[in-house]
Design brief:
- The structure is a homodimer.
- By secondary structure, the first copy, chain A, is α+β, with helices and mostly antiparallel strands.
- Helix content of chain A is 15%, strand content 37%.
- The longest helix of chain A is centred in the N-terminal third of the chain and has 10 residues.
Chain lengths: 126, 126
């Protein structure tokens, strides 16, 4: 049985995926994959997710150019989560123009913005 | 509105949570939280998840002693994922006795075990 067959997708046919910066270890984003997107990620060596809101494959960076080049792919002890270690092209993973999507830190019962916008989303998505 | 109210839980009342080693950046595990578990995590400053299989709160480390002490809590750009930066007590997050749950690396279409068991689960869970 190959690796793709061993991955466990949920009742919606999806598996959670975490993207982590290969060099710094920073967690960049969280998204979902279906079987096809995991297959394409492996084949292309670039992150391909599944957009639940748009109900279609999401070729990360197709609009922004901020693709994620695969360095390593892991799964967890239960084969039901994927961890991608990636090189983040452009140094921006987040649609807000920040490096990581996890820029809001809990401080005194508020989410405090801890990182600045590298590039204005208007300039990224035109 | 406080931080807990701003977190977005899905139709099952759950939010994905990623635990990352505060010191090394290693991604340790992925689990789910409901509102109560996120509240308890913040209050106790220890990771509390929600077990979907057991349908109840999961006080991480309650059996194993491998609690996760909270260093920082983040949410993402959409407020619908939680990232915990933790000190992993005992250096073991995974129920298999390994540091991280993400120990299976994709190599030539197979998941290859890349880390060794630190402590036999029989000795952890008795």
């Amino acid at each position: 049985m190959d690796a793709l067959e061993q991955a466990k997708f949920d009742e919606q046919g999806l598996i959670p995926a975490i993207a982590q910066d290969f060099a710094t270890g920073e967690v960049l984003m969280f998204a979902w994959m279906n079987k096809k997107s995991l297959l394409l990620t492996i084949e292309k060596q670039q992150a391909v997710y599944y957009s639940r809101s748009r109900k279609k494959l999401w070729f990360k960076g197709e609009e922004s150019g901020h693709t994620q080049l695969i360095k390593e792919i892991y799964t967890d002890c239960d084969n039901d989560v994927i961890l991608l270690k990636v090189e983040q092209v452009g140094g921006i993973a987040c649609h807000t123009g920040r490096k990581s999507c996890f820029f809001q830190k809990l401080e005194y019962n508020n989410w405090k913005n801890t990182s600045k916008v590298i590039k204005d989303p208007k300039d990224i998505y035109g």
